[in-house]
Amino acid sequence: PIKEALLKMEKINASSIIVKNNDGYGIVTDTNLRHYILQQSNENHKNIGGIQTKPIIWAKNGELLFNVLLMMTKKSIKHLPVFDEDGSIIGVLEMINLVSFFANQTHLITAQMENATTIQEVVLAASRVDVMIGALHAKGVKSRYIAKLVSEINKKMYTKLFKLIIPPSWHERCALVLLGSEGRGEQILRTDQDNALIFEPNFKPEGIQEIALEFVETLDKIGFPRCEGNVMVINPKWHQDIIGYKAMIDEWIENPTQENLMDAAIFFDSSAVAGAQLLHSSLRDYLLKKVQNSPLILCHFAKPIESFDSALGIFSQFVTEGSAHKNEIDIKKTALFPVVHGVRSLSLEKGIMVTNTYERIKELNNSGFMSREDAHGMIEALEVVSTLRLHSQIAQQHNAKIPNNYVSIDTLGKMERDLLKEALKSIERFKKVVHYHFKLSMVG
């Protein structure tokens, strides 16, 4: 009975109760009880099972706490049952305990995002993200896990902005898409915005320019500056119907200029966050088929991996910048880009459709192209350079500077220098693998 269950909850000061059913488990939380009380005249349940939520979302004992935090953020839940290997319930983990452990504002931010009814409320919620990032970094959480959490929070932000700005009559006729590092789910601190709208065939809504401008300006207020390359919904190139996008993809493949190949790269990294997401997935499938029907394009596509020299000399000394960036390394150009683009090129060739670089590396291992040892080495190298960049960017923020991609060698301890050298060596070996695989010496 409901009253008996409530008395048990009160006795042990619990905010949830697990319900065992013949076909599994359910959960009753404060939210279920509030709903029951408010709707009691319409829902005359006598037993606690009548108001439970099922099937439940759960975690197994031994799961990493950060993965649990990520799951609860993604699913917007406050209580997560934990089960042992034999299927027996151990207990219920609450979001408030996780937030306290990691000393961050994840739940507050996501709750504010989801409950926001105005643009200003979204801006306020988003302003707390950098504080959360700093707290997680200070706790020693790996940069790729922080990126995953930030990505989930940003998806909620974009979903809310889509509802608040994009006219409701468009919602089922277009898809909001993130490109570049946001599309890969690898952005941590805010960088230039990269976004697009895909419309259903022959749908060309009135007022698109005004709506797109409001969307871009709102992101600018939140802290996502305009893209210097104009890869934004305000650009007619990036708010077309699906027929227009297919014609653009044809042009990328048939006329592989540097600009066209870069557009193809950022689109292959894209992900849909709101609206009719099937429009986006069908376009990525179309791009993949076009590339696989023109295999020579991959050599040109992969060529930019050789655009930047290594930050490590032949005697394993650091090769740093001069003038304004004396004794500094541009981590993005010399370390991150070669890995991201090399993995992206291989993924396009192998038909790997996940967008995150770490997940792509795992899939390259699963496909047999990369050994488990090599995949692990690349993941660790990517983690090292990403973490050093994030540490530098947070320090720049604290000194009231605009974060950039430079890391000062002078600020690194001996262990950090050694780790960076090993990471750069791994990245150089990977560049050679990509070079020989795509026969880049034959590409002009």
Could you provide a short overview of the structure?
With 444 residues, the protein is α+β, with helices and mostly antiparallel strands. The protein is built from 18 helices and 11 strands.
Descriptive terms for the model:
single chain, 444 residues, alpha+beta, CBS-domain, Beta Polymerase, domain 2, Four Helix Bundle (Hemerythrin (Met), subunit A), 3 domains, four-stranded mixed beta sheet, three-stranded mixed beta sheet, 11 strands, globular
Your description of this structure?
There is one protein chain. This protein has 444 residues and is α+β, with helices and mostly antiparallel strands. The chain is built from 18 helices and eleven strands. Helix 15 (331-350) packs antiparallel against helix 17, helix 15 (331-350) runs parallel beside helix 18 and helix 16 runs antiparallel to helix 17 (372-398). The protein starts with a helix and ends in a 7-residue tail after the last helix. It is globular and about 75 Å long. The mean pLDDT is 90. The chain folds into three domains: 2-94, CBS-domain (Roll); 103-292, Beta Polymerase, domain 2 (2-Layer Sandwich), CATH 3.30.460; 304-442, Four Helix Bundle (Hemerythrin (Met), subunit A), CATH 1.20.120. The protein is 53% helix and 11% strand.
Query: Strand-residue fraction?
Result: 5-15%
Tell me the number of structural domains: 3
CATH topology of the largest domain: Beta Polymerase, domain 2
Major sheet: size, sense and barrel closure?
4 strands, mixed
The coarse overall form would be: globular
Distance between the termini: 76 Å
CATH superfamily of the largest domain: Beta Polymerase, domain 2
**Estimated structural class:** alpha+beta
What order do the helices and strands follow? HEEHEHEEHHHHHEHEHEHHEHHEHHHEH
How would you write the strand order of the largest sheet?
A: 8-7-6-9
CATH architecture of the largest domain: 2-Layer Sandwich
Q: Which value, in Å, is the CA radius of gyration?
A: 24 Å
The tally of helices reads 18
